[in-house]
Design brief:
- The structure is a single chain.
- With about 725 residues, this protein is α+β, with helices and mostly antiparallel strands.
- The chain folds into three domains: about 450 residues, Up-down Bundle (Multidrug efflux transporter AcrB transmembrane fold), CATH 1.20.1640; about 90 residues, 2-Layer Sandwich (Alpha-Beta Plaits), CATH 3.30.70; about 120 residues, no CATH class.
- Helices cover about 65% and strands about 10% of the residues.
- It contains 25 helices and 14 strands.
- The strands form three sheets. Strands 7, 8, 9, 10, 11, 12 and 13 form a seven-stranded antiparallel sheet that branches. The chain has a five-stranded antiparallel sheet with strand order 2-3-1-5-4, sandwiched between helices.
- Strand 8 and strand 9 form a beta hairpin.
């Protein structure tokens, strides 16, 4: 099939190139403004208790999360009469804004937790109506209108809506900067690899096509599912890196075939049949790794699966279809505009051949030393603490983050992150069962980590009702039952917040089943949902990847070793996640704020992505080793020649991919830094220690057993395996 594709691309090269140009223009139009369509949500498990609590609050009580706050600072104190008058006026002004509801403040409620502990700050809270686009437009206008300062008050705008807007704006500006850095750095590295301007520009052109295609794809996906804002930089970097990686393999093989004396047509066909097959299998492993994310119920995780699979397909399409057509058009002019001299290397005498020989002479001590080093680098992950993502993903000094920091440092309760306890029932429950509700609310307020409980029967602190119900308490009751607001005194998304939720759920409710929701409960439910599905995700990746490698190499041992070595190559990444981003080492150099925890979604996402990327190089290296072994049947020679023919390319590909990823690490968003630095580290470890040392060592130790199959499996492979049947050469393009 690949041979037929190769000849088709040779014959229709001009048409394919023209179609690629048209696709580029169309994708550019579709992808414009895609960032405005992305979401910061999607972290909920729809079937979790916290999700059902949120649904009941909105449906039965008309209560939804307040997403806007004004932080008011008054040096004279928030209880000063002039300040109080100005605060009430500010509250009325915000309440009069179109699309803003549920506006309350310290001066209207007199709730102590709405004022700072030193009495110089107070909050005005409200909810912006509309979908995410409408909320974004409204909060942008409100932020400009209400960020103000005079002799009496200083007002700053914060809350989830403003934090998301700031994340969106930061991501967009970061993306422009990263792309401006990535392309020239990548071009310089490609010039070093190829020594030809024309050859160096080809992978970059395919990478540009992949980036534009990714934008269009993201825009289309937002029409059918939520796509995370954090996917913007990550998938752009992934598409650019994969496209350049795959193109590097293809261009290198094409030049190798030309140097061996093939005409242009046959060189293109051989390239598609060999390097093209490797690229196809490599992209399949990346797609399979990311497809495991589909088993998670959170839209955030599933969006990365959709986007990642499609991005991999775009990179494959560019490298396997567009690039060979370009090569057929250029022919031997692919080496035009040479820079410097390319030194010819005699077969069997290159540095990579010598490295393979040295490793295979002492496979046991070298393999032992490298495995020990990788395990040592991964040890910090044993101390991982899982938390959540908040405003601290933004750069220090960001206005929305500064507001959130004031809330954490200066306010006794986390008013904006209150837990909710929904008590299903009917209107009589809120009226006739007040004694039970009073007792239940008091017991909830005595739970460790709880600052205050608000209910239809009053306000409770430390197990005691401190104030009777006022007019505001009417919001806690409806014909569907009642609900309680539990204001935490601890960080909501943290181990302490998780412990608080567990204790709240353990309190015996006199009404029967209740639903505990809120940000802390969402965190707990999401963690349990994710952890429950991790074994299945890992199992899917391992099983399907093993099957693909079996069909490609006709071996049991080679796929097994590939899976084990791939896992080893990820240890340094996981260790660095904890040592750097959880514990805060190098935080000053990298410019982020450590929180002491990691969001559980991050290790899962990074495992799936890094596993697929690492398998790229494994497949490329093993395919050349198998090609050599099929040619002469000598395992040691096949290993040495396979590494010689791929070592330079794999190293260059890893350097290019790492360089692309690290340009996106200049982002001001901490999660993007974590993703890209971690993935870059995994790629570098894989292309150096694993491919240069562990693969030759284990291949040598296994010997001919690498290529052994029991007879029943051999029959299966002979029937379904993918072999490199070489067709006779045809008259080609010269």
């Amino acid at each position: 099939m690949l041979t037929s594709l190769g000849w088709f691309l040779v014959r229709r090269r001009v048409v394919v190139c023209a179609a690629a140009v048209v696709a580029l223009v169309v994708c550019g139009a579709l992808g414009s403004g895609v960032a405005q369509k992305l979401t910061s949500g999607g972290l909920l498990d729809p079937g979790a208790e916290s999700s059902r609590a949120a649904e009941a609050l909105g449906r039965d009580f008309g209560q939804e999360e307040r997403n806007l706050l004004l932080l008011v600072t008054a040096q004279e104190g928030v209880d000063d009469p002039a300040v109080a008058r100005a605060g009430r006026a500010l509250t009325r002004e915000l309440a009069a804004e179109a699309g803003v509801v549920d506006v309350e403040s310290y001066w209207t409620l007199r709730a102590p937790t709405l004022a700072s502990t030193d009495g110089t700050q107070a909050l005005v809270v409200g909810r912006i109506l509309g979908d995410e686009d409408e909320v974004g437009r409204r909060v942008e206008r409100l932020a400009a209108a209400y960020t103000r300062s005079d002799d009496l008050l200083r007002v700053a705008v914060g809350g989830p809506a403003e934090v998301f807007r700031q994340v969106l704006e930061t991501s967009e500006s970061d993306l422009v900067r990263a792309e401006a850095i990535a392309f020239p750095i990548t071009l310089a590295l490609l010039l070093l690899v190829f020594g030809s301007v024309v050859a160096a520009l080809l992978p970059l052109a395919v990478g540009g096509l992949a980036v534009v295609g990714t934008f269009a794809l993201l825009a289309l996906l937002t029409g059918v599912t939520d796509v995370s804002i954090y996917a913007l930089n990550l998938t752009t970097g992934l598409s650019l890196g994969l496209a350049i990686d795959y193109s590097l393999f293809v261009v290198s093989r094409f030049r190798e075939e030309l140097a061996a004396g093939a005409d242009v047509g046959n060189a293109v066909v051989t390239t598609v049949r060999t390097a093209g097959k490797t690229v196809a299998f490599s992209s399949a492993t990346v797609a399979i790794s990311l497809s495991a994310l589909l088993i998670f119920p959170q839209a955030f995780m599933r969006s990365f699966a959709y986007v990642g699979i499609a991005v991999t397909g775009i990179a494959l399409l560019g490298a396997l279809v567009v690039l060979p057509a370009l090569l057929a058009v250029l022919g031997r002019r692919v080496d035009s505009l040479r820079i410097g001299r390319q030194r010819a290397v005699v077969a069997g005498q290159g540095r990579w051949h010598r490295i393979a020989v040295v490793v295979m002479r002492r496979p046991v001590p070298i393999a032992t030393a490298v495995v020990a080093l990788l395990v040592l680098l991964g040890l910090p992950f044993l101390g991982v603490e899982f938390g959540g993502t908040d405003d601290r993903v933004l750069p220090a000094g960001n206005p929305a983050r500064l507001v959130a920091e004031d809330l954490r440092e200066n306010f006794a309760g986390q008013e904006f992150s209150a837990a909710t306890v929904v008590v299903p029932g009917d209107e009589d429950l809120a009226i006739d069962s007040r004694r039970e509700l009073n007792s239940y609310a008091a017991e909830l307020s005595a739970v460790d980590g709880v600052q205050r409980v608000d209910a239809a029967t009053g306000f409770y602190i430390d197990g005691t009702r401190v104030a009777p119900a006022g007019p505001i308490a009417e919001r806690f009751a409806s014909q569907a039952g009642t609900w309680l607001s539990v204001v935490p005194a601890v960080e909501p998304i943290s181990p302490a917040g998780a412990a608080m939720v567990a204790d709240l759920r353990a309190v015996d409710a006199p009404f029967g089943d209740v639903l505990v929701g809120g940000s802390s409960a969402v965190f707990v439910d999401a963690r349990e949902s994710l952890l429950a599905r991790v074994p299945a995700a890992v199992g899917i990746i391992a099983a399907v990847t093993f099957l693909l490698l079996f069909l490609m190499f006709g071996s049991l041992l080679v796929p097994t070793k590939a899976l084990v070595l791939n896992l080893l190559s990820l240890t340094a990444m996981f260790g660095a996640m904890v040592w750097v981003f959880q514990d805060g080492h190098l935080s000053g150099l990298l410019g982020f704020t450590p929180t002491g925890t990691l969001d559980l979604t991050i290790p899962i996402l990074m495992f799936c992505m890094a596993f697929g990327l690492s398998m790229d190089y494994e497949v490329f290296l093993l395919s050349r080793m198998k090609e050599e072994h099929d040619r002469h049947g000598d395992n040691a020679a096949a290993v040495a020649m396979g590494l010689e023919k791929t070592g330079g390319i794999v190293t260059a590909a890893a350097a290019l991919l790492a360089a692309v990823l690290l340009t996106f690490a200049t982002s001001g968003i901490t999660l993007v830094k974590l993703f890209t630095i971690g993935l870059a580290l995994a790629v570098v470890m894989d292309a150096t220690l694993v491919r240069m040392c562990l693969v030759p060592a284990f291949m040598k130790l296994a010997g001919e057993a690498n290529w052994w199959l029991p007879r029943p499996l051999r029959r299966i492979y002979d029937r379904f395996g993918i072999s490199d049947t070489v067709e006779p050469a045809r008259p080609g393009v010269t």
